[in-house]
Amino acid sequence: MVHPALFYADDQTYLAGTVPFLREGLEAGEPVMMAAPPTKLDLVRQALGPVAAEVGLHDMTLAGRNPGRIIAGVLRAFVDEHAHAGRVRIIGEPIWAGRSPQQYAAAVQHEALINVALADRPATVLCPYDTTALAPAVIADARRTHPVVVERDTTTTSERYADPTDVAQWFSGPLAEPTEIGETLVFSAPDGPRIVRHAVAEHALRAGVDEDRVADLCLAAYEVAVNTVVHTGRPGLLALWTRESGSASGWEAAEPAAVVCEVQDSGWIADPLVGRHPCGPADGRGYGLRLAHQLCDLVQVHSDPSLGTTVRMTMHRDEP
User: What is the average per-residue pLDDT within 246-252?
Assistant: First the structure.
């Protein structure tokens, strides 16, 4: 895999870095896909003209609202679909002005872990970064998560590129303690997961979350609680709280009002890609966490061999 970051300062440099990349792929007969915010998709679609119909275009604000979905649901899905075609070419823009701080941390993890998830795949994944709208620290992080940087038509090796699993682990936590007052309960086998599901439903409904989204959060929490009782054989701790919306700061958006469900246990998850594999119910590689990523607006996982594992699942009170 080749994984460059594209630094751009305006629409002109964005198009100069993305459109030729896509056209070269099409001319070479490579499957081509782009996942980015809608404004960027519109720019590129107009610049490509009729051949835009040959590019798979995806709204990253939907497909990647939870950054933990992107590797399995967007990148690997496309790579695996075209496994017979040889090399594929992808533009993925998971970080933009307007991400919340928690979403940003998850997106940096995602960018680091692309290097692990697609290491042996014949793919080129170009990731644009807006140097005008994003903070300098974001651009510095991009240099840590991308082996190659493209800037002002020049391609260079990133001297700041760091070990992907180390970067992902650093951005995973430990998770900040909540400032809101919530409720907790200890659960264990055999009835623990059912009790967790019931407690989450009651709390989320009281908080005014839509019933369909309550059902999604309950299923995610149930699956994570099942992991606790099955894989640790010891009790787990459920914490629930309702978070009010915060304040925007700089390029980042405010954290939206949400219900947060957290499961802590004594287990350790060694696989940095857990929950990001394109697995099914019969697969042993973290299907419960994969489902949680699909159902929730954000999932944060911090696992330490001496401290155990914390899985924090967030569901916005209003559907984005």
Answer: 86
**Average pLDDT score over residue span 178-205:** 95
The arithmetic mean of pLDDT across residues 304-308, rounded, is 94
Which pLDDT does position 278 carry in this prediction? 84
**Does the pLDDT of residue 28 top 80, yes or no?**
yes
Q: How confident is the model at residue 179 (pLDDT cuts 50, 70, 90)?
A: confident
Kindly report the pTM of this predicted structure.
Answer: 0.94
Question: Do 161 and 146 touch, CB atoms closer than 8 A?
Answer: yes
Please give the Cα distance from 99 to 107 (Å, whole number): 9
